[in-house]
Amino acid sequence: MRIFDEVLEAIEFHIARHEPERGGLLFGPMNRDVAALFIPDEGARSSSVTYTISREMCQRAPEIERETNLEYKGVVHSHPDSFDHPSTGDQSAAANALQLNPHMGKFFMPIVTANREGEGALRSHERAMEGGKIGAFFAERSRSVFGSGVEVRETPLFIVPFHDNIKKAAEKIVENGSCKDAIVSPVGSRIFVDEILSLAYSLQCDRHDYIIMGGELFPQGAPHILYSGHDGETRAVPVTWSINCDPAECIAMAVTLSLINETCREKIARLSSRFRQGSKRWRRDRKKLLKKAREQLKNAEHATSKKKKGEVL
After folding, report:
1. Is residue 209, in this structure, part of any structural domain at all?
2. What is the phi-psi region of residue 47: left when phi exceeds 0, alpha when psi lies from -120 to 50, beta otherwise?
3. How many Cβ atoms sit within 10 Å of the Cβ of residue 76?
4. Is residue 281 part of a domain?
5. Torsions phi, psi of 302, nearest 5?
6. Structural domain span for residue 42
7. Which band of pLDDT confidence, cut at 50, 70 and 90, is reported for residue 313?
8. Residue 82, burial from CB neighbour count under 10 angstroms (0-12, 13-18, 19+)
9. What is d(CA 137, CA 154) in angstroms, rounded to the nearest whole number?
10. 139: closest CA among 97, 77, 185?
11. What CATH code is carried by the domain that includes residue 142?
12. Is the pTM here over 0.85, yes or no?
């Protein structure tokens, strides 16, 4: 299972920082084991040892799917720290969810728990969180011919560290002197680029605005960076990328080179404007001088004509 770090941050804020049990729904791209959106279930019926999804959240799930073009993936909730795996009640809830959603092949059910003293290293299906950990599990329909229930399994958990690397890149851009302030903020859009789900962030470097989009395959896959020019045009920013590169360093380098390029572009535009304005002023002054010269010539001719007439007389 792959989960965007933005989603993990939301789970930490709404679940891990509170006493169990709390929970919410996970959504992701269709037919892929990816969690790209977390919606907290504020109206759930819960106690220190139980969690039941609210009726309101069940009704909202189809609406969220339509609004985001994502698919309902499952439920994440917290357990007391002594119980870091799905309970029998969780298994029954998963079986009911799979029965109500026959199109789903898997029902994801991550469990959040606090750290326990003396606990060993995290396993492949677990990742550290603030003050605890999250373990990834999924339920699928039983393959047994004798049962109609579900089987619950651990699944390796991979974090898509996109938000974290954008923040690090912003810090590097300020450190190298390319701008004074670099502000990162979520755009909120979940975009499909070449059929790969991407999350988007806004990066504002002083007066320069960038949109950075990272897909579910990040950091193996390169992000897409767009610059919103002051001339009203949107330009793609070239990104040098490799599988083994430092993602934050590569993003920072791409934006830094773009800032240099855009600064040069603005200076050239200002110089061109001054030149055009100077040319206009020169043409205007030249026109005035020519007019004045013609008037002087006309007056001189008129005076000469009067003089000649006087001599004749």
Report:
1. yes
2. beta
3. 29
4. no
5. -65, -40
6. 2-158
7. very low
8. exposed
9. 4
10. 97
11. 3.40.140.10
12. no
Percent of the chain with pLDDT over 70: 85
Give, in order, the Cα–Cα distances in Å from 155 to each of 27, 165, 174, 201: 17, 25, 39, 29
Do 204 and 124 reside in the same domain of the chain?
Answer: no
Tokens 């949107």 — which residue?
Answer: 234
Rounded CA-CA distance 93/288 in Å is: 89
Are residue 143 and residue 169 in the same domain, yes or no?
Answer: no
- How far is 96 from 91, CA to CA, in rounded Å? 9
Q: Are 20 and 130 found together in one domain? A: yes
The more confident residue out of 265 and 86 is 86
What six digits make up the tokens of 147?
A: 């049962």
* Secondary structure E strands in the chain: 2-4, 23-28, 34-35, 37-40, 45-46, 51-52, 71-78, 107-108, 111-114, 126-129, 132-135, 137-141, 150-154, 158-160, 182-193, 196-205, 208-215, 224-228, 234-237
Amino acid at site 156:
P
> 145 and 128 in contact (C-beta within 8 Å)?
no
Chain CA centroid to CA 217, Å: 14
Residue 132 counted as domain residue: yes
Bond from prior residue into 219 cis (ω within 30 degrees of 0)? yes
Residue 168 belongs to a domain: yes
Give which of 106, 118, 197 is closest to 150, Cα–Cα.
Answer: 106
Nearest by Cα to 61 from 47, 75, 49: 75
Whether the per-residue pLDDT at 286 is higher than 90: the answer is no
**Are both 146 and 60 inside the same structural domain?**
yes
| Paired residues of 274 in beta bridges | none
Q: In the chain, how many domains are there?
A: 2
